Amino acid sequence: MDLKEIMAVNLRRKRHDLQMTQEELAERAGLSARYVGAIERGDVSASVTVLGQIAEALGVEPGDLLKKAARLSKS
């Protein structure tokens, strides 16, 4: 699994843990819902800037989204 796929899995898991829609996450992160969906599907690679925006919107550290088999805490 490459980093793009690891981030996709961790992002989706954390978003679901927070019971947040892609649209809500996109709004909080200042991104489009289509882009968030593409990241979650692993269709595109997020830049470090976007990684930071998403992490902040989810309330996690950016590195947590890149850890293989990450167990992100529910915030």
In the CATH hierarchy, what is the class?
Mainly Alpha
Radius of gyration: 11 Å
Shape: globular
- N to C succession of SSEs: HHHH
The number of helical segments is 4
Total strands:
0
Name of the CATH architecture = Orthogonal Bundle
Give the overall pLDDT as a whole number.
92
Strand content: under 5%
Q: So, the CATH homologous superfamily? A: lambda repressor-like DNA-binding domains
Structural class: mainly alpha
List the domain count as a whole number: 1
Give the % helix: 55-70%
- Unreliable spans: none
CATH topology: 434 Repressor (Amino-terminal Domain)
Notes on the structure:
With about 80 residues, the chain is mainly α. The protein has a single domain, classed as 434 Repressor (Amino-terminal Domain), CATH 1.10.260. It has 4 helices and no strands. Helix 2 (about 20-30) crosses helix 3 and helix 2 crosses helix 4 (about 50-60). The longest helix has 15 residues, at about 5-15. It is globular. It starts with a helix and ends in a 17-residue tail after the last helix. About 20% of the residues are buried. The model has no long low-confidence stretch (mean pLDDT about 90).
